[in-house]
């Protein structure tokens, strides 16, 4: 493993970042609340995909106090579509313990529900200039290649060593530049030091990269094989009656998607028999690959439905936390209806 001089690396990286970084909305603020929202969203979501959710979320909850005052259902509805909903629940819980004031120390930020070492370091450095190095997947990839380190990045000792290396480079800077350095490291990994095809020809640190000199940049970092995907077939039914849609709600304390609304499965409606399929779509959650068949039908006006099924006015759907599979199914249903009514018009 090769060490790189701290000052020369940091200077080159910051010059590059100043000239080439993406203009992302959370980079235009030092407000810790807004930075926190962005960092939580970016934990499992690409930056480009997160932008519209970020803007809508802040329009709805412009401050810690506004988020704390909201109901859990309102927060989940605003988060709907981003997935990994424990992030939203933790944010809501954290807002309620802040008492309207965002904490200013690294440890106080780290103690918030849903905040780990990376998120605490990102907020502390960007919002308050505190000298804590971040370590996410992008930074680990940059460090592994700079040092030509072939250790498994899934190992805790490797992550600790890589964090110490990143901290070494940050420590040589004025603390006011700590946030810029952290963002520069992440930006380099996200846009140049890519996982499969690193763009070494435009990398500001190419001359310092030990893996590039050894011709190993495409082989690093080393990580354990991914979990084999699990394929699952499922079916949902779109049942409408007089401006209402048949749905059911998960228990608030359910381990997954607690409090979210779902479309029923055909098995919940045995009296309808075999419903016609109107289409299929795919949906992925971690290593689970769902193939979802969407069916449609109607119930007689006098037919009753049993709990947990409920008739929900269609006009209220935008304010409800609908699961992503339910949203995808309903969009597919809308496309099918448009095609049925206007067969000559492309959707």
Structure overview:
With 347 residues, the protein is of the alpha+beta class. It has 2 domains: 6-219, Hypothetical protein, domain 2 (Endonuclease III, domain 1, Orthogonal Bundle); 230-341, Nucleoside Triphosphate Pyrophosphohydrolase. The protein has 13 helices and 6 strands. Strands 1, 2, 3, 4, 5 and 6 form a 6-stranded mixed beta sheet that branches. The radius of gyration is 24 Å and the shape is elongated. 35% of the residues are buried.
Per the principal axes of the C-alpha atoms, what is the gross shape?
elongated
The CATH class name of the largest domain reads Mainly Alpha
- Uncertain stretches of 5 or more adjacent residues: 341-347
SSE ordering: HHHHHHHHHHHHEEEEEEH
Total discrete domains: 2
Kindly provide the radius of gyration, computed on alpha-carbon positions and rounded to a whole number of angstroms: 24 Å
Mean pLDDT: 92
Instruction: For the record, give the distance between the C-alpha atoms at the N and C termini, rounded to a whole number.
Output: 55 Å
> How many DSSP-defined strands?
6
Number of helices: 13
Structural class: alpha+beta
Approximate strand percentage: 5-15%
CATH architecture of the largest domain: Orthogonal Bundle
Fill in the CATH topology of the largest domain: Endonuclease III, domain 1
What's the CATH superfamily of the largest domain, by name?
A: Hypothetical protein, domain 2
Keywords:
347 residues; alpha+beta; Endonuclease III, domain 1; Nucleoside Triphosphate Pyrophosphohydrolase; 6-stranded mixed beta sheet; disordered C terminus
